[in-house]
Design a protein that fits this description.
Helices cover about 65% and strands about 0% of the residues. It has about 120 residues and is an all-alpha fold. The longest helix is centred in the N-terminal third of the chain and has 31 residues, at about 5-35. The protein is rod-shaped. The N and C termini lie far apart (about 65 Å).
Length: about 120
């Protein structure tokens, strides 16, 4: 998370806390006054809360990590290109007597092509 995104998020949180405090004070003030009219929040408190929500959301989005691919094949291809170190299934694939699909496919393809037959 960069410095700019942290500042935007922090400023948005301060605004949100202030809007919450203002809404609480407004509610307390009008509950003690026993007015018969409606006690809706003033427009400036509502706008302050919405602006703070936008600022916090913007700061969090700016500070987020790069998104990972959605497609399974893209994700798997990216892991293979990086050497497979981030592969979450690496421990399963390295188990003793684990059936190696790639090696079996290569053996089958060689067998179909006839590469493993002894040519006379």
């Amino acid at each position: 998370m960069g410095v700019l995104s942290r500042l935007v998020t922090f400023f948005g949180l301060i605004l949100l806390a202030h809007a919450g405090y203002s809404a609480h004070e407004h509610t307390i003030l009008y509950s003690n006054a026993r007015l018969s009219s409606t006690t809706a929040l003033p427009l400036d408190i509502v706008i302050e809360a919405l602006v703070s929500l936008v600022l916090v959301s913007t700061g969090l989005v700016l500070g987020a990590e790069k998104l990972k691919p959605i497609s399974w094949s893209e994700w798997a291809g990216q892991i293979e290109r990086e050497g497979g170190m981030r592969n979450p299934y690496r421990r399963l694939e390295e188990r003793y007597s684990f059936w190696d699909v790639r090696a079996k496919r290569k053996e089958f393809a060689d067998w179909i092509r006839g590469d493993d037959l002894v040519k006379e």
